[in-house]
UniProtKB/TrEMBL annotation:
Pfam families: Fapy_DNA_glyco (PF01149), H2TH (PF06831). It catalyses: Hydrolysis of DNA containing ring-opened 7-methylguanine residues, releasing 2,6-diamino-4-hydroxy-5-(N-methyl)formamidopyrimidine. Belongs to the FPG family. This is Fpg/Nei family DNA glycosylase. One of its GO terms (biological process) is base-excision repair. SUPFAM superfamilies: N-terminal domain of MutM-like DNA repair proteins, S13-like H2TH domain. Signal peptide: none annotated. Gene3D superfamilies: 1.10.8.50, MutM-like, N-terminal (3.20.190.10). Keywords: DNA damage, DNA repair, DNA-binding, Glycosidase, Hydrolase, Lyase, Multifunctional enzyme. It comes from Labedella endophytica.
């Protein structure tokens, strides 16, 4: 799943390559991807891109007319072909294209979804806040305005497991499965600990880990091309997706979080006092 560092990197790429370009045509290959049925993608035709903004894990492509909001969901992503590239057929294992936006001069943006079920959504709107999943977003923990007291207000009194809380978009925008694992590993906190049980020192560690992990990822992905972002993210993970491998900092192996079906990982020595979580 693309999370805020990857979505921001894609946004930066589009600011560099799509800004000012006029949309010449659009094609919708999968009608279920369009969530604003009363407002077709065709409304974008003839308008020029004026900006690209990120809202958590959503990307808004603004034009001098409507805005296209892309909600990437579990497995959505995008492919870009610039106006100097020779058109090529996608690789046989490439995720299916859901929609294509063509620009004057030959550049093209295609949105894709590699999941077993469709998770990417497209919205043609005047304001991204018209989309409920954006309107309900919590604060962005990667922003300069996110402070320690904000986190304290979120976790204190919440009887919810930390792993689940970090991924709750209405609470903290932009963190998903992978970075929640990385943040809790960096903070040396159990993924199943309840937020309400954290003491002052543990909350301080969690805040520092959120800022350090996200800011490091934002910087590391900043100039990575969209086609390489997934691989760059995977390569940077310390525990996520590395079950069975030696922990980089502890005398143990990385383990799957029980009940996650292999989708979440942790280190028992670093995070749970050396005692593996019960199966």
């Amino acid at each position: 799943m693309p999370e805020s560092p990857e979505v921001e990197a894609l946004g930066g790429f589009l600011r560099e390559h799509a800004l000012g370009k006029q949309i010449s045509s659009v094609e919708l290959e999968e009608f279920r991807a369009l969530k604003t049925r009363a407002r077709p993608l065709g409304e974008l035709e003839g308008h020029a891109v004026t900006g690209v903004r990120r809202f958590g894990k959503h990307l808004a492509i603004d034009t001098d007319g409507p805005t296209l909001l892309v909600s990437f969901g579990r497995a959505g992503w995008a492919r870009w072909r610039d106006d100097t590239s020779v058109a090529e057929e996608p690789a046989p294992d490439a995720p299916p294209m859901l929609a294509r936006i063509a620009f004057d001069g030959g550049a093209e943006l295609a949105v894709t979804d590699a999941g077993d079920w469709l998770s990417l959504g497209l919205h043609v709107v005047d304001d991204p806040s018209e989309v409920s999943s954006v309107a309900k977003l919590g604060p962005d923990p990667a922003s300069d305005g996110f402070k320690r007291e904000d986190l304290d207000g979120i976790v204190m009194g919440r009887r919810k497991q930390l792993k689940a809380l970090l991924q709750e978009q209405e609470t903290l925008a932009g963190i998903g499965n992978a970075y929640s694992d990385e943040i809790l590993y960096a903070a040396r906190l159990s993924p199943v600990a309840h937020a309400s049980t954290l003491d002052e020192e543990e909350r301080a560690r969690l805040f520092a880990a959120i800022r350090d992990v996200l800011r490091g990822a934002f910087e590391d992905r900043r100039k990575v091309p969209p086609t390489e972002l997934k691989a760059a993210k995977v390569a940077a993970m310390a525990v996520h997706g590395r079950a069975g491998e030696p922990c980089l900092e502890g005398d143990d192996v990385v383990r799957d979080v029980p009940g996650s079906k292999g989708a979440a990982q942790y280190c028992a020595v670093c995070q749970t006092g050396g005692v593996p979580l019960p199966e």
